[in-house]
Amino acid sequence: MNAVKKKRVLLGFLSLILIISAYILYLNFSTKEITVLSSQTTSVSLNLPKNCSIQNENEDLKVNGKSEKNYNVDNDKIDVYSSSAGKYKLKAKLFGIVPINNYNINVYPNVKLHPSGKLVGVSMNTKGAIAVQFQSIIDVNDNEVCPAKDAGIKMGDIIVKINDKKVYNAKEVISELNKLSHKELSMVIKRENTEETIKITPVKAKKDNKYKIGVWVRDSVAGIGTLTCYNEDKSRFVALGHSINDVDTGIIMPVKNGNVIESELISIVKGKRNAPGELRGVLKADKKDIIGSIHLNNDYGLYGDVTKKVATSNALDIALQDKIKEGKAQILTTIDNNGPRLFDIKIKKTYKQTKKNTKSMLIEVTDKELLSKTGGIVQGMSGSPIIQDGKLIGAVTHVFISDPTKGYGIYIEWLLEDLLAKQN
Asked: Is the pLDDT of residue 402 over 70?
């Protein structure tokens, strides 16, 4: 074989390797996501050619009623069933040899949930003291200083320890600083889920002779929102459909403890173009008005345990994103002190999602009464459950600033994991 032929053979061999590698990469990145409910047989279309087989390595997932490792596919559809929620993988092979597709079968718990729509108050204490603003100090020598800024503290940092002693609020931070006076101290701060230790020396302020580091901190928050739903079996609730963030730094406020409380609506600021509206209310102060305790504040809402029976409508089945239709639906929300009511909306668009997202569907308020009283979606309505064809499909999360008749909703499946999780 001459050099030219050898070169051609080598190039052909390398090309074949590249084609095979590209095909393997394609399979890895072209995995199809399928969502189903547990304890329910669901027919799914795989879009496969003839002479294909399915490989199943999951004992908890049945395909066509059987728990076997390999199945011949006679037509384009298979039936899948699992009694428990989880993530399962299937592989499709042509002639039982050539891989042609991968499938993730995402099984969500088939639960009934009580939609609420109740306007509630939120009172929450943070886990640590959040740095929200620097403040220069005039010390006893008439120097203008800011030890916190000089030491490298940033806005949004959470102070969790001072010299190995845990601090949970602003009062404890101030107390520890004055105990240690002018001595250099070690301060543990939490920044973007990572703890760092900072060395800092407080200074005595000329104004009041107290030791300070030159930073304002926040340790609590209160407001109004909407209770989305609760699960009676686990006595767990979810509210808001999005996180509570610090108004100055934008960070998600970490929960030490808090409550969802009965509230009273006192007024409505109607939403207008480029001027968001608002439900204004007051939190009731009696212990008997506490509805539940808050344990988690994340991107998708507030979660916690129900401590008081909540009067709501009957429990509803849920529907996953592939069952939601563009068109008529309703939201359950509160616009007076007579309790939650259903109002008409239209689902303008749904988005195929494989990861949690608070902007799952585009919605538009069409109900004449709701438009007349609120102008559409207003602050405080976030968390209002969305219902279609008698099933709970999600919750309101955002309003368009430029058009308050429109906003976003989140799919109910993105709320289930934390709603049904066992609280430690």
From this structure: yes
